[in-house]
Structure prediction request, 200 residues.
Amino acid sequence: MAEGAQSEIEALIALMARLPGLGPRSARRAVLHLLRKRTGLMAPLAQAMGHVAETARDCTRCGNIAGGEICAICADPARATGEICVVEDVADLWAMERGQAFKGRYHVLGGVLSALDAVGPEELGIPKLIDRVGVERVTEVILALNATVEGQTTAHYIAEALEGTGARITSLAQGVPIGGELDYLDDGTIQAALRARRSF
Prediction:
């Protein structure tokens, strides 16, 4: 193989290794597989990636990934239910959509409050969320943030900031997952499940 081609392949492997879940060895295997399937997989993949790189942008309303100014969820009039679900990032939004249980709109923070990383309310678009609650006549804000210290700190901050808006502030239930066995759960999950117990 020509030296130039080899260095380009090595550069591709190095880029692939930066993807979540791929280390140098996995990236090398993935690139080798793509090279073997150049016509049927690598070329269409490169074309699709180029197209998405040119067209994808953040939705100006909620922060989801969109093909235009507004994402399909925000553009859908049937989703204007008066409910906004606040999530940490787009992956969380996609997870909520997979469940097909929520029919409202979203607000993607893009992170959580962190004094160490100098991430404040403005960096997370919390003032924009407060504006949306008023403009969109939101009746309920669902805080679907991760059950980490930073996630819960952010949730408390948002709840306090929305106190005077008249919107009901709720959070996702936490506890024993469907199909979960107590023996395999961590102490924090069991404690949360006990606190959230209800009549049978």
Notes: The mean pLDDT is 90. Strands lie at 57-58, 65-66, 83-87, 105-108, 140-143, 168-171. The radius of gyration is 21 Å. The chain is about 45% helix and 10% strand.
